[in-house]
Amino acid sequence: YGVNVDSAGIVWIACTPDFAGAEGGLASYDGEAFRTLSHDQMPQSVVFYPMIDGGGGFWVGTVDGVYRSDPGSLQFRPAPGVAYPYVFTLAEDAHGTMWAGTNGGLSRYARSRLRNLTTQDGFPPAAGAFEFLEDRNGLLWAPTVGGGIARYDGDRFRVFSVEDGLPAPFVQAAALDSTGQIWVATSAGAARLDGERFHPIPGQPTAFCTNIFVDSDERVWLSTFGDGVWIYDGSTWQNLTTATGLPTNEINQVLEARDGSYWLATEAGLVHLVDDDVEVFDEESGINPYISRVVE
């Protein structure tokens, strides 16, 4: 689930209740202690994604729509109704428009007006959106689960699927490189966009990709579920797995830190890569070993 950092450096974490009795809701970490907002502040206990907009307003995607608080306040209230109740992700585009990705379409908040975008606008049917990407032309891309990747031009969606070169219709994530080229991770490998068609990356494994990331050296990192991390330098592949020191082959995300090192969110702890050194933070380090996202 989602993690975000506000302008004061406080980390905000979306939580859901678990079978062990841990409470859900919205939690924060200020560098010293964790704190969970009370039910009076955040009425919904199943939270998927926190987002702070450019004006300091706080938005939260939940199992029951979007909740919002004003700048400087942590008193959340329901925002106008979105297309479908499960709001998995939120994003703000270059024009200050807020977007919500739901289990059945997208919702757009522009100048305090809500517009739901669904199949009538060309969005693929029965497809949930878990992420957004804005390209250099200001077009919004929404990877979907089962419906390919949808591109919105301000009027309608253009959907790219297996007929357009995608390895599979389940698109987990998308990324931009320094040239503005779009790369996507699917349940059957990765591909990059050339014109109006996607092309699988030569020599890649047919792994279930969970995320994709392009680092400062233009290397493409593929997080996979069961096959570790694959790194593509433009011509060859390198594979990091338990055989090279990772605690698991189930990887959720890769982040490049400002110091040039890499952090991996995995199903068995947080991994820090510095050159060839691998450091693992897990239960023995005092953290939950299941790490879905990492931010800096």
Summarize the entry for a quick read:
This protein is mainly β and 296 residues long. It has strands spanning 3-5, 11-15, 25-29, 34-36, 47-52, 58-62, 65-69, 77-78, 87-92, 98-102, 106-110, 113-117, 128-129, 133-134, 140-145, 149-152, 157-160, 171-176, 182-186, 189-194, 197-200, 209-214, 220-224, 229-232, 237-240, 251-256, 262-266, 269-274, 277-281. 0% of the residues lie in helices and 46% in strands.
Could you please describe the fold and organization of this structure?
By secondary structure, the chain is an all-beta fold. 0% of the residues lie in helices and 46% in strands. The strands form seven sheets. Strands 13, 14, 15, 16 and 17 form a five-stranded antiparallel beta sheet that branches. The radius of gyration is 19 Å and the shape is globular. The mean pLDDT is 88.
Beta-strand residue percentage: over 45%
- Total number of helices: 0
Mean pLDDT: 88
**Shape descriptor:** globular
Low-confidence stretches: none
The biggest sheet amounts to: 5 strands, antiparallel
Whole-angstrom Rg: 19 Å
Total beta strand runs? 29
H/E element sequence: EEEEEEEEEEEEEEEEEEEEEEEEEEEEE
Distance between the termini: 16 Å
Helical content class: under 10%
Q: Helix- and strand-based class?
A: mainly beta
